[in-house]
């Protein structure tokens, strides 16, 4: 009889134990259950350092989590608890803001064992966004330049080397030459060579031929042609014209072609 009573008592105690365990299990909140945001002291949420959130992982200690996220936003305490909860505001690519709750669960060694978001899209909002591919810009076709030679000749009055002494509308033609050289896409060099006729001594004619070349050079520079591209030289007497006899007005007129400055330019357009 005593044995039956003891067996019945043991069975009753086992049943009560199982009932209490079931009740406790039913009363314990699920890990996926998040606290009411209204109970947080940061109900407005916090804009976190997203790079820090990406560094969250299992195995971190509470001090490490504090460094990354700061203190939890609810009153669950810091030590002796296994759950911290946060409210974070996360910005989407279009600038809109989603408020998310973030939970950190700790094991019995106070190390992170699991992290959860209350909304599936929250995990996507902290993922590093890949930059949009930039469409390749078409490579322009290289400009093909055509080599050109530009040349002209100018004559001066007898014994003169200034611009005003140019013959045959020389100033107008020289201005047109300067414009043509400026208009080139590429100017490589300009060679100017001055001459004098045979009348006079050699040294004076050499100086006169140089002065005439310098006059043409100075005019071109003043009208926008780069001086660094120009070389001006005097070559003394030019004896192309067949004008025999001593100095006379007729011989001077005949030697007009020898009082010359030639211009040769190389470039491209």
TrEMBL record:
It comes from the Bacteria. This is Outer membrane protein assembly factor BamE.
């Amino acid at each position: 009889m005593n044995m039956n009573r003891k067996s019945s008592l043991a069975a009753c105690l086992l049943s009560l134990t199982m009932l209490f365990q079931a009740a406790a299990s039913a009363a314990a909140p699920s890990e996926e259950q998040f606290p009411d945001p209204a109970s947080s002291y940061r109900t407005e949420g916090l804009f976190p350092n997203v790079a820090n959130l990406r560094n969250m992982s299992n195995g971190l200690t509470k001090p490490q989590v504090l460094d990354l996220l700061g203190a939890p936003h609810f009153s669950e305490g810091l030590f002796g608890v296994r759950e911290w909860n946060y409210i974070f505001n996360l910005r989407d690519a279009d600038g809109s803001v989603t408020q998310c709750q973030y939970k950190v669960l700790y094991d019995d060694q106070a190390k992170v064992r699991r992290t959860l978001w209350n909304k599936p899209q929250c995990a996507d909002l902290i993922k590093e966004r890949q930059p949009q591919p930039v469409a390749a810009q078409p490579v322009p076709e290289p400009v093909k330049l055509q080599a050109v030679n530009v040349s002209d000749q100018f004559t001066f009055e007898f014994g003169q080397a200034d611009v005003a002494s140019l013959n045959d509308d020389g100033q107008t033609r020289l201005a047109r030459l300067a414009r043509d050289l400026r208009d080139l896409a590429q100017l490589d060099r300009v060679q100017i060579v001055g001459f004098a006729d045979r009348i006079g001594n050699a040294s004076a004619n050499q100086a006169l031929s140089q002065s005439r070349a310098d006059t043409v050079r100075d005019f071109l520079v003043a009208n926008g042609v780069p001086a660094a591209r120009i070389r001006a030289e005097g070559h003394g007497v030019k004896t192309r014209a067949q004008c025999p006899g001593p100095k006379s007005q007729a011989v001077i007129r005949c030697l007009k072609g020898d009082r010359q400055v030639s211009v040769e330019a190389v470039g491209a357009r």
